[in-house]
Amino acid sequence: MTKVPSLVPIIAIACHWLAFPLVSAHAAQASPWQEVVRWNDTVLIRQEAEITKVRYSLDAGKTFSPSRRVDYELDFFWGKFDPLDGLPEMPETLAPHPETKLILVQFHGPAIPPWTEAIESAGGQFVQAQSGSALVYLFKDEAPGFPKFPFVRAVVPYAPALKLHAGSVDLLRADSTPDEIHLVLVDSSSKTRSIISDLALSFGAIEIGHSNGRKTLGFSLLAGSGNYVLLENDLVAGVTLRSNQFILESSTEELLLGTSSVDGIVNTLPQVVNIMGGDTLHAVDLDGDPPTGGFSPNAIRVEVFDGDMEEGNPVLSGRHFYSLDANWVIGIGTARHGGKVFSTVMSDGTGFPDSKAALPGAIGFWAPKSEVPHGNPHNRFLHRYPAIQDPSPIFPIPLIEPCVWVTSTALNNGKESDSSYNTDSFFIDDAIMNTVPGPGVSAVLFAGNEGWTTTSEWAPRLSSDAWAKNVISVGAIRRGSNIIPFDLSSDFWWGNETIGTGFDPGGMGRFGSDSEVAPNWSARVKPDIVGFNSGVKAVAKNSTAWVESNFPGTSSATPQVAGHVGLIYQMWGEGLFGNSIISPSDYYDSRPPISLIKAFLINSSRPYPIAKMPPSATNEVKDSNSILRANQGWGLPNLHRLYHTRLETYYEAEANALHPDTKPRYTVYLQSASTGPPPDVPDELRITLVYNDDPGAVTMEDDLVHDLTLRVVDENGNIYWGNFGLWEKNESKVRNEADLERRDNRSNVENVWIPNFPLTTNFRVDIFADELVNVPSAGWPFSLVASRCQELTFSTDTITLVGDEVIDTGISPGSGTYTFSGAPANAAYWIGSSEHDFGHWNNGHPFDIGLTYTVESSGTTSATGTGSWTTPVLPPSMAGTTFYLEVGVSSGGSIFDSNMLEVSVL
After folding, report:
1. What is the pLDDT of residues 564-578, one digit of tens each?
2. Residue 778 needs a FRET pair 20 to 30 A away by CA distance; which of 414, 607, 680, 795 works?
3. SS3 string of 645-709?
4. Residue 507: which pLDDT band, with cuts at 50, 70 and 90?
């Protein structure tokens, strides 16, 4: 066996430390691991350093979870504070009421089940997760006395100020009146909820959402002279019901829909479909007949939830079409927004060849926004899906569910844009997670055209619905030239299209002082994807006739993308990824999880180069050098790449799940493609992680509830973390050791893109459960797509390694003993140690411990395949360090390995 360059063995490290005065050694080391909690069978230890880490045990300290970071400061929009220091300074009207029953509980570490169950047994009802290991609980007793648990670090009342959305905070500080207030109420008592509803409605509020599963109820109201009292008198704490309410507010501003000016070349829709790769699918003979566009009459189902549709729209001629309203015909007259959106998704081009869309054979549903109660998606979802089992007069036929749900109009009465996750985003995520049955329905939403107001205002501004984590948010780029279809070098972004997240031009710290740090209030890449804002042709009506009308803005870009999302459903339904087909005649029944569809879309995208600065009055760049990650998300759809790499693509379709204690990491071993790329496909390895997330806390900068993290390590030890480097380039950066803790903990989409990755190079993909809150016993699922590669199969972790996961240097003898079993008999073994856990390859076999590593013990296994090793006595000067152990065995030309142990030294 070849031994790689090693660290100094542990025994040598001990001697090294003993050779120096202990004072000096302690001065140089990190703060030691200390036991913080011991309660029943749970133990938590913590290491205080520049980055605080914790580990916990569910078996009284015999085994521990992997270490994880924790930041105890809570970053609310109202202010950042440590709960141990009490609440931040706030106006008296926004301070907690003496009788409040909403309590913010912060744990010493992650909210593990034994601790949350203990609080629930003490009368606490879980309301919402916050960052910083904190949860909000509702206590129903009149005067709740919070029980003292050793695992609870701090308890503070949940003040009205902490419930305020960013927009409301800005308005309060500016002493101005919001145009509109949104409220979310949480309570378990139906009687109390009824009283709260009546109170809100008496002030003119409109109900905008309801979720039985989470017992939430939302309202929207204009903040006029008669209604603003809701904010002034603090309905958040609210009259006699103040202790039972949980309310979030946000202001609104007018958002121009589909009116972005066109300063680029006008496109025909077939040109867009060609650029986005839809033509590649249209040319595929899926049914054994002559190519027909890849569709049958009952192929993809798309629902458009939007503005009005014109009577007699030729897009509907001879087509299957269902309306959610029996009186769907909305007059005759000028072109209407909903008709253009519908046309851009599924026009078959009959009579209008410049408007042939990506889904010319799709079944269309249309839900007129004006006819859906209060024009919002929350009631729309809640009255839509129950009708499958219980048809009512408004549903004249049994409804067939769509694969794709698309809108290009604001879902909250067409008014709001915002700079972060808010109540509308919350309800969209809640509907997707808790209302839509089965694998879900892909919601494709427009991101808006607001851009910035002045050249000095760089705040991200999107449609509030587009901030939702579980949707596909669509921005827009202007087409500069279409002389060469795939030449995008003159495309550009300018001023009033989407500006989402990904850039901090002023370096003022709003997004963090380092462009590598996820950079905004919500801190995810939004929009997710882009289409074209260049007057793309759509079927519409002028005063006298049906025409092909220019349709700009994200209103047009969104249905462009939605059509290509539908094509991905068809690829899956036809088994083009080598997947099994549940129902060959029904793409809906065979559909995969929406997280996988989103991962396929993003993984195969065509990104523009990342600009250093966006255009401004002094930087009038109108080509692809003007486009930031904040404008384009992950780029344009590119189904050409998706189709041609489909058989060299590894994917996980929510078949695995992670749990913080029983399965905190998922690993798969892959090898890059053995041949060059297909025509017109960049030679690039791409790995994409997507998972759905619960509705987040709109009052905090961190609205991600569950945090999964992507890491890729190649056989040469190069480490790539999800999204690192992709804010400033379309190429992931290799992270050195100093960067290992800087993960993206704000995104539920993470990418690693490596151009010109060497052929047949082995690498491993790890997905970590960094933060999981109140997850089901089965864990939290995810989807993974890795293209231009194939899976490698190894016998890993076939040997069982057990031993001391904590060594206390203050307790004699201050050493650890480790035994292994299940190895081949009478075979050469070695036990390796490393400071890292990012893996390495040895003679073509992958190990979990990282480079460099030290062989601590070697020899021959027993006749029963066992062995053991005891460390030397470790001096107190080693306290605060961590190392990782793994066993390797060579037998019969094969290599075997054990599970990895993380050992903390106290």
Report:
1. 999 999 899 888 998
2. 795
3. CHHHEEEEEEEEEEECCCECEEEEEEEECCCCCCCCCCCEEEEEEECCCCCCCCCECCCCCCEEE
4. very low
Q: Which H helix or E strand runs over 337? A: helix 337-346
* Interacting residues of 284 by C-beta distance below 8 A, sequence separation 6+: 291, 294, 643
Residue with tokens 């919500």: 522
Q: Please say whether the beta carbons of 359 and 345 come within 8 A.
A: yes
* H or E segment to which residue 769 belongs: strand 762-771
For 466-625, where are the alpha helices, taking DSSP H only? 553-573, 594-603
For residues 751 and 686, the answer to whether their CB atoms sit within 8 Å is yes
Which tokens belong to 23? 């004072």
Task: Show the CA angle centred on residue 712, arms to residues 710 and 714, nearest 5°.
Answer: 175
Place of tokens 């998300």: 633
CA distance 284 to 329: 36
Omega before 98 within 30 of 0, i.e. cis: no
873 pLDDT above the threshold of 70 = yes
Q: Which position has the token pair 């220019």? A: 550
- 3-state helix/strand/coil string of 300-321: CEEEEEECCCCCCCHHHCCCCE
Query: What is the chain's alpha carbon radius of gyration, rounded to the nearest angstrom?
Result: 29
How long is the chain? 906
Q: If 0-12 CB within 10 Å is exposed, 13-18 middle and 19+ buried, where does residue 2 land?
A: exposed
Quote the pLDDT of residue 331. Answer: 41
Tokens 């042939």 -> residue: 356
Peptide linkage before 527 cis (omega within 30 of 0): yes
CB 732 within 8 A of CB 752: yes
Q: Which helix (H) or strand (E) holds 762?
A: strand 762-771
Candidate from 431-445, 635-649, 763-777 with smallest mean pLDDT: 431-445
Given a contact cutoff of 8 angstroms between Cβ atoms, the answer to whether 341 and 304 are in contact is yes
- Enter the tokens of residue 462: 């999107």
Place of tokens 């904590």: 806
The proportion of the chain whose per-residue pLDDT surpasses 70, expressed as a percent, equals 68
Give dist(CA 784, CA 791) in Å, integer.
13
Residue 216's identity, in one-letter code, is T
Distance in angstroms (rounded) separating the CA atoms of residues 422 and 418: 8
| CA quadruple 362, 368, 373, 374: dihedral sign | positive
> 468 is written with which tokens?
């939702």
Least confident of 102-106, 235-239, 415-419: 235-239
Indicate the pTM of the whole model. Answer: 0.87
- Choose the weakest-confidence range: 430-444, 555-569, 722-736: 430-444
Nearest to 587 by CA among 305, 869, 296, 181: 296
185 close to 230: Cβ distance less than 8 angstroms: no
The enclosing H or E element of 429 equals helix 423-434
pLDDT greater than 50 at residue 643: yes
Task: Give the pLDDT confidence score for residue 751 in this predicted structure.
Answer: 96
- DSSP bridge pairs for 830: 858, 888
The per-residue pLDDT for 171 is 59
Rounded alpha-carbon distances, angstroms, from residue 417 to 255, 304, 365, 452: 6, 21, 27, 12
DSSP state letter for 128: E
For residue 158, the SS3 value is coil
